What does this fold into?
Amino acid sequence: MIEIKNITKKYGNANSLVIALDNVNLVIESGTFVGIIGESGSGKSTLLNLIGALDMPSDGSIFLDDIDITKFNENQAAEYRRNNLGFVFQNFYLEQDFNVLTNVEIPLMIQGIEKKKRSEIAKNTLQSLGLEDKIYCRIDELSTGQLQRVCIARALVNNPKLILADEPTGNLDTKNGRAVMELFKALTEKEITVIVVTHNIEQAKLCDKIICLSDGKVVSIE
Ligand SMILES: Nc1ncnc2c1ncn2[C@@H]1O[C@H](COP(=O)(O)OP(=O)(O)OP(=O)(O)O)[C@@H](O)[C@H]1O
Ligand SMILES: [Mg+2]
It folds into this structure.
């Protein structure tokens, strides 16, 4: 379970202050598929980055299974991300010099898992996403929809409790975008929590819960 308590995030200084998040309170149960919607600049990415311990709030706490992640130092935050999280971004961030398999193995290398084991895990994950015939392809040989599935595979290999995705379907056509959302939905059936930022209201309808932000405040939860 994720509990977000009185989270405020300010950027800048007294002369040019931006309140990106303004006293946000949320509870997200495990295994929920959550959509975050809202206008550009409403604080969606800021909220996702705080939940991912990529950034720290100005005020408030975020508990993941009763641990306050806002108290972490940098090493603890990095360990929390490694052990609990999978990130999926709009712009993929895949390593062009490595093939598909190696890209998906990277989080496992960081964890020090030996070659044979990590290759097996990565291949199984790619297969579960319908990419078994692309394992040895170069990144530039894949379609956009396939690239996004490689990113999801990379986010999944270390069995995260929580997947954070910032506009993962922003670069995809309607069909591939929907396929990615359906894939996320299927993950939540295995008790993985998925939080996805999207501009696409149609796709957000697949979520269990839709949180709408406006000017850094939660304006509705459906
Ligand atoms: N590093 C930063 N320094 C200063 N201001 C920032 C920084 N990051 C975000 N902001 C500001 O915080 C507010 C919220 O930004 P955020 O990126 O969370 O919006 P968003 O809802 O994700 O928007 P978009 O849909 O365009 O991605 C904006 O006003 C933005 O300008
Ligand atoms: Mg954003």
Remarks:
- The chain has a mean pLDDT of 94.
